[in-house]
Protein backbone atom coordinates (compact mmCIF):
# COMPACT_ATOMS: atom_id res chain seq x y z
CA UNK A 1 0.00 0.00 0.00
CA UNK A 2 2.86 2.40 0.75
CA UNK A 3 4.20 1.98 -2.80
CA UNK A 4 0.77 2.49 -4.25
CA UNK A 5 0.20 5.75 -2.34
CA UNK A 6 3.67 7.03 -3.22
CA UNK A 7 3.11 6.31 -6.91
CA UNK A 8 -0.16 8.15 -6.86
CA UNK A 9 1.17 11.25 -5.10
CA UNK A 10 4.19 11.36 -7.41
CA UNK A 11 1.80 11.30 -10.32
CA UNK A 12 -0.88 13.73 -9.18
CA UNK A 13 1.07 16.01 -6.82
CA UNK A 14 -1.89 15.91 -4.47
CA UNK A 15 -2.61 13.92 -1.36
CA UNK A 16 -5.29 13.41 1.24
CA UNK A 17 -4.64 13.69 4.94
CA UNK A 18 -5.19 9.93 5.44
CA UNK A 19 -2.72 8.99 2.71
CA UNK A 20 0.05 11.14 4.13
CA UNK A 21 -0.67 9.90 7.62
CA UNK A 22 -0.49 6.30 6.43
CA UNK A 23 2.88 7.00 4.82
CA UNK A 24 4.40 8.62 7.89
CA UNK A 25 3.20 5.74 10.04
CA UNK A 26 4.39 2.98 7.72
CA UNK A 27 7.44 4.17 5.79
CA UNK A 28 10.55 2.09 6.50
CA UNK A 29 14.12 2.52 5.23
CA UNK A 30 13.33 0.49 2.09
CA UNK A 31 10.14 2.27 1.13
CA UNK A 32 11.74 5.62 1.97
CA UNK A 33 14.23 4.89 -0.83
CA UNK A 34 11.31 4.66 -3.26
CA UNK A 35 10.06 8.01 -1.98
CA UNK A 36 13.51 9.58 -2.47
CA UNK A 37 13.70 8.11 -5.97
CA UNK A 38 10.40 9.76 -6.94
CA UNK A 39 11.41 13.04 -5.34
CA UNK A 40 14.71 13.01 -7.23
CA UNK A 41 12.97 12.27 -10.52
CA UNK A 42 10.52 15.12 -10.05
CA UNK A 43 13.27 17.52 -9.03
CA UNK A 44 15.24 16.69 -12.20
CA UNK A 45 12.13 17.13 -14.32
CA UNK A 46 11.50 20.60 -12.84
CA UNK A 47 14.97 22.07 -12.41
CA UNK A 48 17.37 19.59 -13.99
CA UNK A 49 20.59 19.09 -12.04
CA UNK A 50 20.76 22.74 -11.02
CA UNK A 51 21.21 23.69 -7.38
CA UNK A 52 20.79 27.39 -6.62
CA UNK A 53 23.02 29.24 -4.20
CA UNK A 54 21.80 32.17 -2.09
CA UNK A 55 24.08 34.35 0.01
CA UNK A 56 22.74 34.58 3.55
CA UNK A 57 23.39 37.72 5.57
CA UNK A 58 22.36 37.51 9.23
CA UNK A 59 22.29 41.24 9.85
CA UNK A 60 20.94 41.40 13.43
CA UNK A 61 20.48 38.91 16.25
CA UNK A 62 18.31 41.27 18.29
CA UNK A 63 14.87 39.74 18.68
CA UNK A 64 11.72 40.99 20.38
CA UNK A 65 10.18 37.50 20.30
CA UNK A 66 10.56 34.63 22.70
CA UNK A 67 10.09 31.44 20.68
CA UNK A 68 10.87 28.64 23.09
CA UNK A 69 13.22 26.77 20.74
CA UNK A 70 15.30 29.67 19.48
CA UNK A 71 18.76 30.56 20.80
CA UNK A 72 18.39 34.28 20.07
CA UNK A 73 15.05 34.61 21.90
CA UNK A 74 14.59 37.78 23.93
CA UNK A 75 15.00 36.04 27.30
CA UNK A 76 18.40 34.57 26.50
CA UNK A 77 20.56 37.13 28.28
CA UNK A 78 23.77 35.31 27.41
CA UNK A 79 23.64 36.30 23.76
CA UNK A 80 25.91 39.14 22.79
CA UNK A 81 23.63 41.18 20.55
CA UNK A 82 24.75 42.89 17.35
CA UNK A 83 23.30 44.94 14.53
CA UNK A 84 25.03 45.49 11.20
CA UNK A 85 24.89 48.97 9.66
CA UNK A 86 23.72 49.57 6.12
CA UNK A 87 27.35 50.00 5.05
CA UNK A 88 28.33 46.69 6.65
CA UNK A 89 25.45 44.88 4.97
CA UNK A 90 26.32 46.42 1.60
CA UNK A 91 29.92 45.30 2.10
CA UNK A 92 28.67 41.70 2.56
CA UNK A 93 26.64 42.04 -0.64
CA UNK A 94 29.68 43.37 -2.42
CA UNK A 95 31.75 40.39 -1.35
CA UNK A 96 28.88 38.08 -2.28
CA UNK A 97 28.49 39.67 -5.68
CA UNK A 98 32.20 39.21 -6.38
CA UNK A 99 31.83 35.54 -5.46
CA UNK A 100 29.01 35.26 -7.98
CA UNK A 101 25.88 35.34 -5.81
CA UNK A 102 22.77 36.82 -7.44
CA UNK A 103 20.36 36.34 -4.53
CA UNK A 104 20.91 37.87 -1.12
CA UNK A 105 18.86 36.64 1.80
CA UNK A 106 18.66 39.26 4.55
CA UNK A 107 17.75 37.56 7.81
CA UNK A 108 17.45 38.82 11.38
CA UNK A 109 15.54 38.44 14.60
CA UNK A 110 12.41 40.54 14.86
CA UNK A 111 14.26 43.77 15.48
CA UNK A 112 12.19 46.96 15.35
CA UNK A 113 15.36 49.05 15.00
CA UNK A 114 15.14 48.17 11.30
CA UNK A 115 12.00 50.14 10.56
CA UNK A 116 10.61 50.61 7.08
CA UNK A 117 12.73 53.64 6.27
CA UNK A 118 16.00 51.89 7.21
CA UNK A 119 15.01 48.77 5.27
CA UNK A 120 13.80 50.71 2.23
CA UNK A 121 17.10 52.58 2.13
CA UNK A 122 19.00 49.29 2.39
CA UNK A 123 16.98 47.62 -0.37
CA UNK A 124 17.45 50.67 -2.62
CA UNK A 125 21.17 50.57 -1.89
CA UNK A 126 21.43 46.93 -2.94
CA UNK A 127 19.27 47.33 -6.03
CA UNK A 128 21.15 50.43 -7.18
CA UNK A 129 24.50 48.69 -7.00
CA UNK A 130 23.29 45.34 -8.37
CA UNK A 131 20.06 45.80 -10.33
CA UNK A 132 19.93 42.18 -11.45
CA UNK A 133 20.07 40.52 -8.02
CA UNK A 134 17.07 39.17 -6.13
CA UNK A 135 16.56 40.37 -2.57
CA UNK A 136 14.95 37.95 -0.14
CA UNK A 137 13.82 39.15 3.28
CA UNK A 138 13.49 36.92 6.33
CA UNK A 139 12.70 39.34 9.12
CA UNK A 140 9.54 37.99 10.67
CA UNK A 141 6.03 39.33 11.14
CA UNK A 142 5.20 42.87 10.06
CA UNK A 143 2.10 44.77 8.98
CA UNK A 144 0.55 44.56 5.52
CA UNK A 145 1.65 48.16 4.87
CA UNK A 146 5.21 47.42 5.83
CA UNK A 147 5.38 44.33 3.60
CA UNK A 148 3.95 46.46 0.80
CA UNK A 149 6.54 49.25 1.26
CA UNK A 150 9.41 46.78 1.24
CA UNK A 151 8.06 45.11 -1.89
CA UNK A 152 7.69 48.46 -3.62
CA UNK A 153 11.25 49.28 -2.60
CA UNK A 154 12.36 46.23 -4.59
CA UNK A 155 12.32 43.19 -2.29
CA UNK A 156 11.50 40.13 -4.39
CA UNK A 157 10.97 37.26 -1.98
CA UNK A 158 10.10 36.68 1.67
CA UNK A 159 10.82 33.71 3.91
CA UNK A 160 8.50 33.26 6.86
CA UNK A 161 8.31 29.70 8.06
CA UNK A 162 4.93 28.80 9.47
CA UNK A 163 7.02 26.75 11.98
CA UNK A 164 4.23 24.20 12.63
CA UNK A 165 0.71 23.82 11.27
CA UNK A 166 -0.54 22.46 14.60
CA UNK A 167 -2.32 25.31 16.32
CA UNK A 168 -1.85 23.77 19.78
CA UNK A 169 1.85 23.22 19.28
CA UNK A 170 2.28 26.65 17.71
CA UNK A 171 0.69 28.38 20.68
CA UNK A 172 2.81 26.37 23.14
CA UNK A 173 6.05 27.28 21.39
CA UNK A 174 5.34 30.95 20.72
CA UNK A 175 4.34 32.88 23.83
CA UNK A 176 2.56 36.09 22.95
CA UNK A 177 2.26 35.21 19.26
CA UNK A 178 -0.71 34.07 17.25
CA UNK A 179 -1.10 31.11 14.93
CA UNK A 180 -3.69 32.99 12.83
CA UNK A 181 -1.51 36.08 12.58
CA UNK A 182 1.44 34.09 11.22
CA UNK A 183 -0.74 32.58 8.52
CA UNK A 184 -2.26 35.98 7.81
CA UNK A 185 1.26 37.35 7.21
CA UNK A 186 1.97 34.62 4.65
CA UNK A 187 -1.32 35.41 2.93
CA UNK A 188 -0.44 39.13 2.82
CA UNK A 189 2.99 38.43 1.38
CA UNK A 190 1.48 36.28 -1.32
CA UNK A 191 -1.20 38.85 -2.17
CA UNK A 192 1.38 41.63 -2.45
CA UNK A 193 3.31 39.64 -5.00
CA UNK A 194 6.38 38.27 -3.22
CA UNK A 195 7.69 34.80 -4.00
CA UNK A 196 6.99 33.36 -0.57
CA UNK A 197 8.70 30.77 1.53
CA UNK A 198 6.91 28.84 4.26
CA UNK A 199 8.31 25.92 6.22
CA UNK A 200 8.53 24.04 9.46
CA UNK A 201 10.71 22.18 11.92
CA UNK A 202 10.76 18.41 12.24
CA UNK A 203 11.02 16.70 15.62
CA UNK A 204 9.69 19.49 17.83
CA UNK A 205 8.92 18.28 21.36
CA UNK A 206 5.37 16.96 21.36
CA UNK A 207 5.09 16.89 17.56
CA UNK A 208 3.24 13.82 16.22
CA UNK A 209 2.92 12.44 12.69
CA UNK A 210 -0.52 13.96 12.58
CA UNK A 211 1.02 17.41 13.06
CA UNK A 212 3.52 16.85 10.25
CA UNK A 213 0.68 15.83 7.95
CA UNK A 214 -0.97 19.15 8.80
CA UNK A 215 2.25 20.87 7.69
CA UNK A 216 2.12 19.10 4.32
CA UNK A 217 -1.58 19.80 3.83
CA UNK A 218 -1.01 23.46 4.66
CA UNK A 219 1.76 23.67 2.06
CA UNK A 220 -0.52 22.05 -0.48
CA UNK A 221 -3.13 24.75 0.17
CA UNK A 222 -0.76 27.71 0.36
CA UNK A 223 1.38 26.70 -2.65
CA UNK A 224 4.46 28.69 -1.56
CA UNK A 225 7.34 29.04 -4.03
CA UNK A 226 9.91 28.05 -1.37
CA UNK A 227 9.78 25.66 1.56
CA UNK A 228 12.38 25.54 4.36
CA UNK A 229 12.38 22.30 6.34
CA UNK A 230 14.90 21.58 9.06
CA UNK A 231 15.25 19.42 12.16
CA UNK A 232 14.56 20.95 15.55
CA UNK A 233 17.89 21.27 17.39
CA UNK A 234 17.76 21.91 21.15
CA UNK A 235 19.60 25.00 22.36
CA UNK A 236 20.72 24.63 26.00
CA UNK A 237 19.85 28.23 26.89
CA UNK A 238 16.19 27.82 25.93
CA UNK A 239 13.23 26.14 27.66
CA UNK A 240 13.49 23.24 25.17
CA UNK A 241 17.20 22.68 25.81
CA UNK A 242 16.62 19.28 27.43
CA UNK A 243 14.66 17.70 24.58
CA UNK A 244 15.95 15.46 21.79
CA UNK A 245 16.62 16.86 18.33
CA UNK A 246 14.69 15.88 15.23
CA UNK A 247 16.18 13.10 13.10
CA UNK A 248 17.88 13.26 9.73
CA UNK A 249 15.70 10.46 8.33
CA UNK A 250 12.42 12.07 9.22
CA UNK A 251 13.52 15.45 7.90
CA UNK A 252 14.52 13.85 4.58
CA UNK A 253 11.16 12.11 4.32
CA UNK A 254 9.37 15.44 4.77
CA UNK A 255 11.58 17.17 2.22
CA UNK A 256 10.86 14.39 -0.29
CA UNK A 257 7.10 14.46 0.34
CA UNK A 258 7.15 18.24 -0.14
CA UNK A 259 8.91 17.74 -3.49
CA UNK A 260 6.13 15.32 -4.53
CA UNK A 261 3.38 17.73 -3.53
CA UNK A 262 5.02 20.92 -4.84
CA UNK A 263 7.06 19.70 -7.83
CA UNK A 264 8.37 23.15 -8.79
CA UNK A 265 9.18 24.46 -5.33
CA UNK A 266 12.59 25.69 -4.25
CA UNK A 267 13.65 23.69 -1.22
CA UNK A 268 16.86 24.45 0.68
CA UNK A 269 19.17 21.80 2.07
CA UNK A 270 19.21 23.57 5.43
CA UNK A 271 22.11 24.51 7.67
CA UNK A 272 20.29 22.79 10.55
CA UNK A 273 20.41 19.51 8.63
CA UNK A 274 24.10 20.07 7.88
CA UNK A 275 24.64 20.66 11.58
CA UNK A 276 22.85 17.48 12.65
CA UNK A 277 24.76 15.34 10.13
CA UNK A 278 27.99 16.28 8.32
CA UNK A 279 26.47 14.87 5.11
CA UNK A 280 22.97 16.18 5.89
CA UNK A 281 22.83 18.76 3.12
CA UNK A 282 24.06 16.27 0.50
CA UNK A 283 21.40 13.81 1.64
CA UNK A 284 18.76 16.52 1.33
CA UNK A 285 19.85 17.26 -2.26
CA UNK A 286 19.35 13.58 -3.07
CA UNK A 287 15.89 13.67 -1.47
CA UNK A 288 14.45 16.61 -3.39
CA UNK A 289 16.16 19.79 -2.14
CA UNK A 290 17.63 22.17 -4.73
CA UNK A 291 18.86 25.27 -2.91
CA UNK A 292 21.79 25.93 -0.55
CA UNK A 293 22.24 29.12 1.44
CA UNK A 294 25.90 29.63 2.33
CA UNK A 295 26.70 32.28 4.89
CA UNK A 296 27.94 35.72 3.84
CA UNK A 297 27.79 37.34 7.28
CA UNK A 298 31.07 38.82 8.56
CA UNK A 299 33.00 36.07 10.38
CA UNK A 300 33.32 38.20 13.56
CA UNK A 301 29.58 38.05 14.24
CA UNK A 302 28.69 34.63 12.84
CA UNK A 303 28.97 32.78 16.12
CA UNK A 304 26.52 35.21 17.69
CA UNK A 305 23.67 34.23 15.40
CA UNK A 306 23.29 31.01 17.32
CA UNK A 307 19.76 29.68 16.80
CA UNK A 308 21.00 26.25 17.89
CA UNK A 309 24.39 24.98 19.08
CA UNK A 310 27.33 23.85 16.93
CA UNK A 311 26.03 25.62 13.84
CA UNK A 312 28.30 24.76 10.92
CA UNK A 313 30.45 27.25 9.00
CA UNK A 314 30.66 29.78 11.83
CA UNK A 315 34.42 30.04 11.46
CA UNK A 316 34.65 30.03 7.67
CA UNK A 317 35.15 32.90 5.26
CA UNK A 318 32.45 33.45 2.64
CA UNK A 319 34.83 32.34 -0.11
CA UNK A 320 35.61 29.08 1.69
CA UNK A 321 31.92 28.26 2.09
CA UNK A 322 31.33 29.04 -1.55
CA UNK A 323 33.98 26.51 -2.59
CA UNK A 324 33.15 23.93 0.05
CA UNK A 325 29.53 23.91 -0.95
CA UNK A 326 30.31 23.72 -4.65
CA UNK A 327 32.29 20.53 -4.02
CA UNK A 328 29.51 19.08 -1.95
CA UNK A 329 26.94 19.84 -4.65
CA UNK A 330 29.08 18.34 -7.40
CA UNK A 331 29.88 15.27 -5.33
CA UNK A 332 26.14 14.74 -4.96
CA UNK A 333 25.70 14.69 -8.74
CA UNK A 334 24.39 18.23 -9.19
CA UNK A 335 25.74 21.47 -10.59
CA UNK A 336 25.91 24.91 -9.03
CA UNK A 337 23.74 27.59 -10.58
CA UNK A 338 24.69 31.10 -9.46
CA UNK A 339 21.76 32.81 -11.20
CA UNK A 340 18.82 34.42 -9.40
CA UNK A 341 17.08 31.07 -9.41
CA UNK A 342 13.52 32.32 -9.51
CA UNK A 343 10.64 29.90 -9.21
CA UNK A 344 9.66 28.46 -12.63
CA UNK A 345 6.30 30.21 -12.62
CA UNK A 346 8.13 33.57 -12.31
CA UNK A 347 10.34 32.78 -15.27
CA UNK A 348 7.32 31.94 -17.41
N1 LIG B 1 12.96 36.17 12.82
C1 LIG B 1 12.60 35.68 11.54
C2 LIG B 1 11.41 34.75 11.62
O1 LIG B 1 10.97 34.48 12.73
O2 LIG B 1 10.89 34.34 10.59
C3 LIG B 1 13.74 34.97 10.82
C4 LIG B 1 14.84 34.36 11.64
S1 LIG B 1 14.38 32.88 12.52
C5 LIG B 1 15.68 32.85 13.71
C6 LIG B 1 14.81 31.63 11.33
C7 LIG B 1 14.32 30.21 11.56
O3 LIG B 1 15.20 29.52 12.43
C8 LIG B 1 12.98 30.04 12.20
O4 LIG B 1 11.97 30.17 11.25
C9 LIG B 1 13.07 28.64 12.82
O5 LIG B 1 12.36 27.68 12.06
C10 LIG B 1 14.57 28.34 12.82
N2 LIG B 1 15.05 27.96 14.17
C11 LIG B 1 15.13 28.73 15.25
N3 LIG B 1 15.57 28.04 16.32
C12 LIG B 1 15.77 26.77 15.89
C13 LIG B 1 16.20 25.56 16.53
N4 LIG B 1 16.50 25.52 17.83
N5 LIG B 1 16.31 24.44 15.78
C14 LIG B 1 16.01 24.47 14.46
N6 LIG B 1 15.58 25.57 13.81
C15 LIG B 1 15.46 26.72 14.52
FE1 LIG C 1 30.51 26.81 4.89
FE2 LIG C 1 31.09 24.33 3.90
S1 LIG C 1 29.45 25.62 3.46
S2 LIG C 1 32.31 25.67 5.14
Description:
The protein has a single domain (about 1-340), classed as TIM Barrel (Alpha-Beta Barrel), CATH 3.20.20. About 45% of the residues lie in helices and about 10% in strands. It contains 15 helices and nine strands. It has helices at about 1-10, 15-25, 30-45, 85-100, 115-130, 145-155, 165-175, 180-190, 210-220, 250-260, 270-275, 280-285, 300, 320-330, 345; strands at about 50-55, 55-60, 105-110, 135-140, 155-160, 195-200, 225-230, 290, 335. It has a six-stranded parallel beta sheet. Strands 8-1-9 form a three-stranded parallel beta sheet. Helix 2 (about 15-25) packs across helix 9 (about 210-220), helix 3 crosses helix 10 and helix 5 packs parallel to helix 6. It is globular, with a radius of gyration of 19 Å. The two termini are about 35 Å apart. Bound molecules: S-adenosylmethionine and FE2/S2 (inorganic) cluster. FE2/S2 (inorganic) cluster binds near residues 294, 313, 316, 321 and 324.
Question: Helices and strands in order, then pairings?
Answer:
Blueprint lengths: L1 H11 L4 H10 L2 H19 L2 E4 L1 E6 L25 H14 L3 E6 L7 H14 L4 E5 L5 H10 L3 E3 L7 H7 L5 H14 L2 E8 L6 H14 L3 E6 L16 H14 L9 H6 L3 H7 L4 E2 L6 H4 L15 H14 L3 E3 L6 H4 L1
